[in-house]
Design brief:
With 179 residues, the protein is α+β, with helices and mostly antiparallel strands. It has five helices and eight strands; from the N terminus they run βββααβαββαββα. The strands form three sheets. The chain has a three-stranded antiparallel β-sheet with strand order 1-6-5, with no helix packed on it. The chain has a three-stranded antiparallel β-sheet with strand order 4-8-7. It has a two-stranded antiparallel ribbon with strand order 2-3. It is elongated, with a radius of gyration of 19 Å. The two termini are 25 Å apart. The mean pLDDT is 87.
């Protein structure tokens, strides 16, 4: 993602966050994190329904199905811009310069819960759209999606419906699909 930071004067910063990167070995890259520790310290952990994340048992049983298509949102959190007034609470100071992020801070406690709820809804809508609920099962894990089943055509239809829904929301899913 481009233009993730905008330089500002120090007086524009309301609060400061830490910034660092973590290795994503499978993708051969580093993920940039803006960590607003001050916000996480005062924000309760979101309470999500137990069934919102796939269980180990369901993942194991679905791995035995004949086919699967996996999709991954491209830089999910960076697809949601925040205004300068909000960004001022996540300022970063580096080498005497002050920057504001232009997108949702990836290290905040709430965005992964938001992503899980949104992506789970997209998966459910994709399966509903194709009208073959018994042929396809879908799982969401934050910004990753897996459709699986025994009928590759139904799974591909669900993946295409998912791409259409994401596009209609203005979100981008990585072009490379694992089938």
């Amino acid at each position: 993602a481009e233009n993730l930071l905008v330089e500002v004067t120090p007086s524009e910063a309301q609060r400061f966050s830490q910034s660092f990167t973590v290795a994503e070995l499978s993708k051969r890259r580093r993920r940039w994190i803006v960590w607003p520790k001050w916000l996480n310290d005062v924000t309760p952990k979101p309470e999500l329904p137990d069934n919102l994340f796939p269980s180990v048992e369901s993942i194991r049983s679905r791995a035995l199905l004949k086919a699967a298509v996996c999709l991954d949102f491209a830089a999910f959190f960076h697809q949601f811009e925040i205004g300068r007034e909000v960004a001022a609470f996540f300022a970063i100071s580096k080498v005497g310069r002050v920057f504001l992020p232009t997108t949702i801070p990836t290290g905040a406690r709430s965005p992964p819960a938001f992503a899980q709820i949104l992506v789970t809804a997209i998966v459910s809508a994709s399966i509903s759209r194709i009208g073959r609920r018994g042929d396809v099962v879908g799982d969401a894990f934050i910004d990753n999606i897996r459709f699986s089943g025994d009928n590759l055509e139904s799974i591909t239809d669900a993946a295409n419906a998912c791409l259409d829904i994401a596009c209609s929301l203005g979100a981008t899913i990585n072009e490379g699909r694992d089938e």
